[in-house]
Amino acid sequence: MSRTYTDEGTGDALLLVHGHPFDRSMWAPQIAEFSRTHRVVAPDLRGYGSAPIAAGTRATLLGDFAEDVRALADALGIERFTLGGLSMGGQIVMECYRLFPERIDGLVLADTFPAAETPEGRAARDAMADRLLREGMKGYADEVLDKMVAPYAEESVRVHVHRMMTSTRPEGAAAALRGRAQRRDYQALLTTVDVPTLVVVGRDDTYTPVADAEAMHAAIPGSTLTVVESAAHMPNLEQPAVFDAALRGLLDRVAARAKA
């Protein structure tokens, strides 16, 4: 079996959690940039990329993913880390902060939102899970590509994102959808965050609009907000230089706090 995570560089640790239905290659620009100064770890979540999922798994809860993050950090001997995630990955980051805040030195919440699922949303996620198992990933990937990355994004980015989506196993994606439908509300948790936090969102993101990011920024004490122009749901790939500059600023804040 191929290794299910990337671990590159040395120094303070930065763990990056991918979204749905992607894999750790979505962080390729950030791994290349930040492994020059940090130890960057990016796992494939269970059921995505090269990571297996147990046969017959109906639902993978955010708590399951969070415990996988903690177990990987333990296995790699990483006690403390800055933790970032995009979309579903951001919700996993929030669950990690709920479960083990003492391990986390900084947070990156990218193109995500903290509210629990609505009844309509739960029904939609369950229906999509059934559809993916029935039809596979391609039809879904074709439909949502222009929302994941903007239509004006570079073709190489669009190809990469579409390839990640169509390469995802339907069983893993469906289990995550069902688990995500059951997620808790993290809005109160955000008001308790006491580590440097970056909230970032693409200006043209329709899944998690700028207003959602602004509300998270307002809720998290001392957080910073970056709205990335000319980007939709994946600004780290669509505008990596802008995303990386914001992330570098957060890592500088984390380092300054550690020295204070």
From TrEMBL:
For this protein, the record's Pfam families field holds: Abhydrolase_1
Query: Keyword set for this entry?
Result: Hydrolase
Top-rank lineage group of the source organism:
Bacteria
Q: Tell me which residues make up the AB hydrolase-1 domain.
A: 13-239
Task: Spell out the molecular function terms from Gene Ontology.
Answer: hydrolase activity
Q: What InterPro entries does the record point to? A: AB_hydrolase_1, AB_hydrolase_fold, AB_hydrolase_sf
Q: What is this protein called?
A: Alpha/beta hydrolase
Species this protein is from: Streptomyces violascens
What does the record give as the organism's lineage? Bacteria, Bacillati, Actinomycetota, Actinomycetes, Kitasatosporales
